[in-house]
Amino acid sequence: MVATKKVGILGATGTVGQRFILLLANHPVFTIHALGASSRSAGKSYQDATKWKQNQPIPENVQNMVVQECKSTHFKECDVVFSGLDADVAGDIEMEFLKANLVVFSNAKNYRREPTVPLIVPTANASHFDLIPHQRKVFGQDKGFIITNANCSTTGLVVPLKALQDAFGPFSHIIVHTQQAISGSGYPGVPSLDILDNIVPYISGEEEKMEWETGKILGSVNSEATGFDHLENTVVSATCTRVPVIDGHLESVSLKFAQQPAPSIDDIKRVLENYTCEAQQLKCHSAPEKAILVNASPDRPQPRLDRDLQKGQAVTVGRIRECPVFDIKFTLLIHNTVLGAAGSSVLNAEIAVAKGLI
Ligand SMILES: NC(=O)C1=CN([C@@H]2O[C@H](COP(=O)(O)OP(=O)(O)OC[C@H]3O[C@@H](n4cnc5c(N)ncnc54)[C@H](OP(=O)(O)O)[C@@H]3O)[C@@H](O)[C@H]2O)C=CC1
Ligand SMILES: N[C@@H](CC(=O)OP(=O)(O)O)C(=O)O
Q: Which of 92, 165, 195, 300 has the fewest CB atoms found within 10 Å of its own CB?
């Protein structure tokens, strides 16, 4: 039995922050101890500060907690700090927390490209925690560290890619087209007059994130455990669009393997169906029983039907078929605010506890 850890949530009033609260409300290892948001919210009770948009009520023990400003002194008793902060402010605030020797799991993009900061999708590259001793040396910390999770669309993409890369070697080409839910743009997000009866074929910065982050996540920790060997020779091309769905990003993927001849469709299905990851071996509370769900129906996955399977922590893959241009193509679905955001951070923190880092 692991002793309970106190956790803080930065950006607790936002879309990702609300997910953190639901995921942590009855958690066996983590207890919500402190909540942080902007000075607009600080000093108010949580229920007065937030515009709650979840389909379950605010947990009773959280409703009247007082929201703090995001200063490390208010969080010094926390064993873990989760961040769902707006990227405009996450950089400075998260660094102040790290320098106060706190453990930070961030959803924001600010430190994903830092050479000493692991970018971890918990069901794909938990081995990247191996860099933490080096990161602690670089930042002069004995206890604190920072882990980022990936962009939500990238997260969905890399889970099946990791399974296939482990089995069949690297890819030469990846083309991905996303149809992303509106919850991905926070609250109030995309104006209703822009998104109802419509599709917006542009999400600022998203394609660049998918094209870059994929290579860091599918790359490896170098032999000295002092940095990451980014994937070389894999070209990723992403097109990202916003569609009128509340939760769940759908992605159409085409792949070409570096090694030819490419595996058969049956071999691809078998590998995806049998994929297991370290979070499962470590028996982490939030690890999905299956990290990849293969659906054989011709019209699946679909956001409304598949996003909540495995409590939102799995990626559903369907429509696996030959590609007349590359080798194979398929469609995947990820719950963007669970595995694509708060769920990744929570599972990453459980892995860190299981590895003895916290
Ligand atoms: N939504 C998603 O699917 C995903 C989001 N992310 C990332 O997670 C982060 C949060 O996103 P999301 O929840 O959608 O955003 P929201 O806009 O819904 O929430 C932003 C949060 O940041 C807080 N905040 C804003 N300004 C400040 C400030 N000056 N000081 C302290 N806190 C501040 C807000 O507090 P207040 O209420 O007081 O203004 C709020 O709690 C972003 O970095 C985003 O890019 C990552 C992956 C997926
Ligand atoms: N841009 C994503 C959500 C997000 O905030 O991503 P990132 O953390 O990479 O900025 C979406 O629109 O669905």
A: 92
CA distance 210 to 236: 8
Quote the ipTM score: 0.97
* Residues contacting 194, CB < 8 A, separation 6+: 200
Residue 18: name the closest of 65, 45, 56 by CA. Answer: 56
Q: What is the pTM of this model?
A: 0.97
Strands of the chain (E only): list them: 5-10, 30-37, 67-69, 80-83, 103-106, 145-148, 171-180, 220-221, 228-229, 235-242, 249-257, 292-295, 315-322, 328-334
Enter the CATH code of domain 5-151+342-354: 3.40.50.720
What is the CATH code for 152-336? 3.30.360.10
Q: What is the pLDDT of residues 189-224, one digit of tens each?
A: 999 999 999 999 999 999 999 999 999 999 999 999
| Dihedral angle of Cα 56, 57, 62, 65, to the nearest 10 degrees | 140
Provide the residue ranges of all domains of the chain, joining segments of one domain with +: 5-151+342-354, 152-336
Whether residue 284 lies in the annotated active site? no
Token pair of 265 as six digits: 């469709």
Identify which of 153, 216, 338 to mutate to test ligand 2's pocket (most ligand atoms within 8 A of the CB): 153
| pLDDT score, position 88 | 97
DSSP per-residue codes, 194-206: HHTT--B---TTH
Confirm if 35 and 67 have CB atoms less than 8 A apart. Answer: yes
* Cα 358 to Cα 144: distance, rounded to the nearest angstrom: 9
**pLDDT digits over 235-270, tens only?**
999 999 999 999 999 999 999 999 999 999 999 999
pLDDT at 173: 98
249 flagged as catalytic: yes
Q: What's 308's DSSP letter?
A: T
59-101 pLDDT, tens digit per residue, is 999 999 999 999 999 999 999 999 999 999 999 999 999 999 9
Which residue in 33, 128, 249, 335 is the catalytic one?
A: 249
Q: Which of 70, 78, 152, 284 is catalytic?
A: 152
- State phi, psi for 270 to the nearest 5 degrees: -60, -45
Task: Answer yes or no: is pLDDT of 2 > 80.
Answer: no
